Amino acid sequence: MDFNRDIVVEYFNDVTEDTKYIRETVFVIEQGFSEEFDEIDKKSIHLLLKVNNKRAATARIFKSDNSSKWTVGRFAVLKEYRGTGIGTVLMKKVEEKIKEQGGHVAELSAQKQAENFYLSLGYIPMGDIYYDQHAPHIHMEKEL
After folding, report:
1. Under a CB-based contact definition with an 8 Å cutoff, are residues 47 and 62 in contact?
2. Measuring CA to CA, which of 21, 27, 57, 143 is 20 to 30 A from 77?
3. Over the range 115-128, which residues count as b (16 or more CB within 10 Å of their CB) and which as e?
4. Alpha helices in the chain (DSSP H)
5. pLDDT tens digit string along 45-69?
6. CATH value at residue 95
7. Contacts of 58 (CB under 8 A, 6+ apart)
């Protein structure tokens, strides 16, 4: 796949039909989460990654309480695009956007099953494992 030609990232100030579809597919249908959409959506920057003009992945970012720290959340890649490197491309775009907004640290609540993915991108686990709804998570951070 030619990442420079085939991939486009779009930015939005709220949930769109495409980002909603990806999040519902991954988190609600596949993983059984029930509390997918919240007030944070309205204060977030939403990223939508498309491959050949088809929705493939999404994430949201928002400024944390700390002025230089931003939270990455709702990071989701549709099943047919997993293992293609799309997640890495999206995370690089997330980090670029955070830096563009003046952020110096990215933090996230990683599902334990995705911890190795974030470790491979330089994120460091902090604290103990905790449960969000039914799934084990770990807090992770990275200096940008």
Report:
1. no
2. 143
3. bebbeebebeeeee
4. 3-6, 17-23, 86-100, 115-120
5. 999 999 999 999 999 999 988 678 9
6. 3.40.630.30
7. 18, 19, 22, 23, 46, 47, 48, 49, 74, 75, 76, 90
Across the beta sheet with 124-132, the strand order is 7-12, 45-51, 54-63, 69-77, 105-111, 135-143, 124-132
Contacts of 24 (CB under 8 A, 6+ apart): 36
Please give the structure tokens belonging to residue 56.
Answer: 């493939």
- Domain residues for 67? 3-143
Alpha-carbon gap, residue 57 to 80, rounded angstroms: 10
Give Cα separations from 75 to 2, 5, 136 (angstroms): 22, 23, 16
Give the tens place of pLDDT for each residue, 56-110: 999 999 998 867 899 999 999 999 999 999 999 999 999 999 999 999 999 999 9
Give this prediction's pTM.
0.93
Q: How many domains does the chain have?
A: 1
Phi, psi of 72 (to 5 degrees): -100, 130
